[in-house]
């Protein structure tokens, strides 16, 4: 298997030569053979050498052994009954539970790692959060900026227990001093993607700005970081010049249509590093930034994903980075090259 | 009124004046109440969810027939409050699927919160064969507890029990899978992308296509052979009607120089919309619309990309064998 892994790595490096200029090495996703039949997988997570992937069209979730690629389990489907989901907005794995933000069914739904339904928790009917996190007490965290804070925390019964995170102005995030849109973009600017570590620290990536934050378990801000400067400038310019008539990965988030700047964030299995997948253009050119979870910036890549759909979501395995695209078949993988770490 | 006379109102007794004022006030209140109701006919503030129930309710469809929302063991109801081309496309697909459903088990019904002329026209032309109910009185919206600013979809059983209620329009694939899941107890998944008909080396599938302008029906294979075509351009995007203008413009340009190209539109595309746009662009070339859905062509390989309205060009040899598939982006 090691031979296969190393071969995959060298193929990826060879394929990526001349595609980049910003940093040494390369990053080239190729289809993960074990899951090539998946129709439109978007959500995925990695836990204990297992890859958990949800298929958008069918609502089914597949569990694979990362090492052998063997499919270990399959469960779920479209619907509202317990054990089914309807186009869930997000998925996390925490404490041997696979949990879905099944927002269109107004709930969180949890399954054992074997795919057995275990519980559901109601979410507010007016929540528009597209991300969530679950802490070690079973409380869940949503991102509804319209409630006046970045993060709202609910217990497993769906009762609001606290909120935290000062809302940011668009001009602050973009560092451009242009405050005229701050009011109109208040909720949009604070749309986020979450990741949480075992100590209940919450990592936040701003969807429309190249900025990340880390909050401690008590809700205090630990740090705020911009993506590397070269990427930052490209992305703020991308946001500023966005023209919806030209297409590209974008959304309204209930307000003005805006491009996706940060698409996904993911912790390494050891939870010592945070990977941030961002745009570089609105189609197939991406940025990947690597930070220590302490906040230190490590490395960054700009790469063309070369995939049929825009790379949208990532998760990090022991050796590989997995990716899914929006609305195309298959799951993609690239080795994490040595260049991106120390 | 003559000069020097007091107005009739002033000439009346005090009690009559009070009565008149009360009457005028009541009339004003009534007028404004009616105006207010007309402006905000029904707002709604909650959503039905799994386990809730609705009373037995029915509405008249575009043909004037009474349609029960709980008439079948499983009723797939989509309530449209927001007009969008994607909803028209949904109606086309829902109609297509309903023709293949076991009607003793399931009904597909569309309810609109107000007039939806496109859909009515498609019913009149026979393009849509499912009931379209104009819920002008919002009685159905009230029964469904539906917010006025949302579309919603429901699966409701014969007793009125809500099996599913979501604040969105089902996608065609949702409808297909949910119908199978509820009504048949199993879902046919497309397990393997490689098993799709549109793969290299395979023959073009037996797809019937209709000429958009003449209505003539033919098989795609025969068309390719008879026209000695080398390319079939499938327009199979997630929402074809959203980008029809840009596609037709590009198609017109290409057809002017490429006479070995056959354009085929998804069967999920409303033909009247397509014809109208093509005529607007003065297109005279043969344009074809698939008459049936073939798994693999509606969802062809990697064709669906949210970001850039793709289409697929399939190159074929003289016998209709697929030799190359290329995704084509249009902006």
Instruction: Please trace the helix and strand order of chain B, writing H or E for each element.
Output: HHEEEHEHEHEEHEEHEHEHEEE
Rg from alpha-carbon coordinates of chain B = 27 Å
The residue fraction in helices of chain B comes out at 25-40%
Low-confidence stretches of chain B: 1-10, 33-41, 192-197, 299-309
State the distance separating the first and last CA atoms of chain B. 72 Å
Could you say which structural class the secondary elements and strand pairing of chain B correspond to?
alpha/beta
Biggest pleated-sheet summary of chain A:
4 strands, antiparallel
Fraction in beta strands of chain B: 15-25%
Look at the structure and give the CATH class of the largest domain in chain B: Alpha Beta
For the residues shown, what is the average pLDDT of chain A?
88
Question: Largest interface, by Cβ-Cβ below 8 angstroms: which chains and how many residues each?
Answer: A-B, 33 and 35 residues
Write the CATH architecture name of the largest domain in chain B: 3-Layer(aba) Sandwich
Query: How many domain regions of chain B?
Result: 2
Oligomer: heterodimer
Uncertain segments of chain A: 1-25
Strand arrangement, major sheet of chain A: 1-26-25-24
Describe this structure in words.
- The complex is a heterodimer of chains A (342) and B (331).
- Mean pLDDT of chain A is 88; it is low at 1-25.
- Helix content of chain A is 11%, strand content 39%.
- With 342 residues, chain A is mostly beta strands.
- In chain A, the strands form seven sheets. A four-stranded antiparallel β-sheet of chain A has the order 1-26-25-24. In chain A, strands 2-3-4-5 form a four-stranded antiparallel β-sheet, with no helix packed on it. Chain A has a four-stranded antiparallel β-sheet with strand order 6-7-8-9, with no helix packed on it.
- The longest helix of chain A has 15 residues, at 2-16.
- Chain B has a seven-stranded mixed β-sheet.
- Chain B is elongated.
- The longest helix of chain B is centred in the N-terminal third of the chain and has 26 residues, at 14-39.
- Chain B has helices at 8-11, 14-39, 85-98, 117-124, 139-143, 172-184, 220-227, 244-257, 271-280; strands at residues 58-60, 66-68, 74-80, 106-112, 132-134, 152-157, 162-166, 208-211, 217-219, 231-235, 261-265, 288-290, 311-316, 322-328.
- Chain B is of the alpha/beta class.
- Chain A binds chain B through residues 36-37, 39-40, 57-60, 77-81, 86, 104-106, 125, 246-249, 282-283, 308-310, 325-330, and chain B through 46-47, 49-50, 155, 163-168, 173-174, 177-178, 181, 187, 189-194, 238, 299, 301-302, 304-309, 327, 331.
